[in-house]
Design brief:
Helix content: 55-70%
Region (Disordered): 62-112
Biased composition (Low complexity): 83-99
Biased composition (Polar residues): 103-112
Strand order of the largest sheet: 1-2
Mean pLDDT: 73
Largest sheet: 2 strands, antiparallel
Number of strands: 2
Biased composition (Basic residues): 70-82
Protein name: Gag protein
Low-confidence stretches: none
Length: 112
């Protein structure tokens, strides 16, 4: 009798549905436990929403991680190859330069 009045007198429809789904297995203690756990869950969800709003961690404002990588790629590209020199200028630069014994590149030798 008290159990039925508790089910009918509940303001929250979700709690009422849970209590009705229990059927004949529902006792007064179990009804109180279900109502308390649902109330506790609602308070926890509300506090989590407050924290997520304060930190800005909402799913609507979050950007995917891939967006960062695509932003980096969209900048101006630098020229990676050195400027080409005319053959005459290259010949003038290499006069007097000899292949290095250590590295094999042409540059001024320190031997005199």
């Amino acid at each position: 009798m008290i159990r039925d009045r508790l089910v009918i007198g509940t303001n929250n429809t979700r709690i009422r549905e849970k209590l009705i789904n229990e059927g004949d297995k529902l006792t007064l203690d179990k009804a109180i436990q279900i109502a308390k756990s649902f109330d506790y869950c609602q308070h926890q969800m509300a506090s989590m929403n407050i924290v997520s709003n304060q930190t800005g961690a909402t799913s609507m404002t979050a950007t995917p991680v891939d967006a960062i990588a695509s932003k980096r790629k969209s900048g101006p590209k630098r020229r990676q190859t050195p400027h080409k020199q005319y053959p005459q200028q290259q010949q003038q630069q290499h006069r007097g330069q000899q292949p290095c014994d250590n590295c094999g590149n042409n540059h001024w030798s320190n031997k005199q």
